[in-house]
Design a protein that fits this description.
Two copies of one chain form a homodimer. Chain A has 273 residues and is α/β, with parallel strands linked by helices. Chain A has a single domain, classed as TIM Barrel (Alpha-Beta Barrel), CATH 3.20.20. Chain A is built from eleven helices and ten strands. In chain A, α1 (22-32) packs across α11 (258-272) and α4 packs parallel to α5 (114-134). The radius of gyration of chain A is 17 Å and the shape is globular. The N and C termini of chain A lie close together (11 Å). The A-B interface holds A 109, 112-114, 118, 145-147, 149-151, 156-157, 159-160, 183-187, 207, 209-211, 213-214, 217, 224-227 and B 109, 112-114, 118, 145-147, 149-151, 156-157, 159-160, 183-187, 207, 209-211, 213-214, 217, 224-227. Chains A, B: It comes from Lederbergia wuyishanensis. Chains A, B: Residues 41-262 form the Xylose isomerase-like TIM barrel domain.
Chain lengths: 273, 273
């Protein structure tokens, strides 16, 4: 199977080096010649949008996505509207920082009603689309692993993300394929094919065994059980040839010096992705 | 919505009171007037099949299921055959102990190949069906939560369990619906309807938030976010009116005296199931 020949498409999702500030992460990417970065909003907030933009532009690094918008469901109409307003700010930030992808982590239900919460997600996306489109930003629905259904996202399958995305033009709403969230799905390859033309991001990491923790249990590519290459090839077959983000929540990796993490990430990217 | 009016269908899945031996669990059920029990094979093994059978018969308690067969995928043909042999013993135990349901936890892949492992599951079930049928035992495929895909089961959705079960007569192979494993699934109610006539067991617990652990994070009904009643009603609508097992892996519950657990379980069963 076809190995990647360069790191041209490699993107550091900033959470992988969580201890680094935005500036440190950008500098780290420059040293390692990683051409892309995915920014988290809490890192942007630390220094403000203006400085973030300057750092990105001065470095000449490309931004693969902004993480994250979403979190639509809430108990009251007022609170839901606040979330929409926050999403509009996230769209502004994406446009300002030069990426056309806002990743949506759609949010958990405020109560036990999954059906209602899923409708709030659909309604929220519907409200955002015109605003995002005007600013040249696409909304990427990232289905999370079902183990996050209670705390992070009621959208937990690529099928469901596709169902929502299908209601819009491909330049309005698409999906993010993150292997950690979807690798288990017997319907995965069919849903990747179905997402043709609207995959807006591809995220890699690994599922380590034994899995130490729900949130912090991701591993570096090659350290776990996910057969990564067929998934990348399927995503490419479905028309996606954009940046590939490495997104790892793992305390051991967070505790490792960032330059070492990037070196390992580059090596594993070629070997396993 | 319709509340249950009695505990006639309530079954103690033995793992809920993990510190109790089989004899202690049966005695606990008698004291609490819980009419059903689901037995785990490691508890049967502690005292042997003969004594287990005597205890069950003397108590006049009904056995809702034996947990568990399955674990089909393995790296070698020899090992896979050993697993089949072990499943035959599990079928014998089920028949001997007076239940017609063997719960299948299908097992993880021995490598990174989920497709191959899923075929091993299908092949294993195919091999077992005639043996089970002769002994009056039905095979209940229990889809596990996708977070167990790497370590416990490559069958992680009710849709997939239905796909396999559909290839057999309803008195040969069916499915087990465990709320903890399937509650997140946007396709849940459709798949319950699809399973009509072949639901062989219904298991309840709850998904607690924050979720403390992958394995030990289940909660008592009512302590989490699962909207239990609509699921039971759907399962009944699909023709299942058999025992309802309470199956909880939770250290705090395991550390609570069994009689207290059963008292609480009975109360929550009426309130929430």
């Amino acid at each position: 199977m076809t190995q990647l020949q360069s790191i041209d498409r490699l993107s550091l999702n900033q959470i992988t080096t969580d201890k680094w500030s935005l500036k440190e992460a950008v500098d780290g990417c420059l040293r390692a010649e990683v051409p892309w970065i995915a920014l988290w909003r809490h890192k942007i907030e630390e220094i403000g949008l203006k400085d973030s933009k300057r750092i990105i532009q001065d470095a000449g690094i490309k931004v693969s996505s902004i993480c994250r918008g979403g979190m639509f469901p809430a108990a009251t109409e007022l609170e839901r509207q606040k979330r929409i307003d926050d999403n509009r700010r996230a769209i502004d930030e994406a446009a300002e920082l030069g990426t056309d992808v806002l990743v949506l982590v759609c949010g958990p239900a405020p109560d036990k009603d999954l059906v209602a919460a899923r409708k709030m997600v659909a309604d929220g996306i519907e409200q955002l689309v015109p605003y995002a489109k005007e600013r040249g930003v696409k909304l990427g629905i990232e289905p999370l692993h079902p183990m996050y259904a209670a705390e992070r996202s009621v959208i937990v399958s690529l099928a469901h993300a596709n169902d929502i995305a299908d209601q819009y033009a491909p330049d309005e709403v698409g999906v993010i394929v993150d292997v950690f969230h979807v690798w288990w799905d017997p319907d995965l390859f069919r849903q990747i094919t179905r997402a043709k033309g609207r995959i807006l991001g591809y995220h890699v990491s690994d599922w380590i065994v034994p899995t130490p923790d729900l949130l912090m249990g991701r591993g570096m590519m090659g350290d776990g059980v996910i057969n990564l290459r067929p998934i990348r090839l399927a995503v490419e077959e479905a028309g996606y040839n954009g940046p590939i983000e490495v997104e790892i929540f793992n305390q051991q990796i967070w505790d490792t010096p960032g330059d070492e993490v990037l070196a390992l990430m580059k090596e594993r990217y070629i070997q396993h992705v």
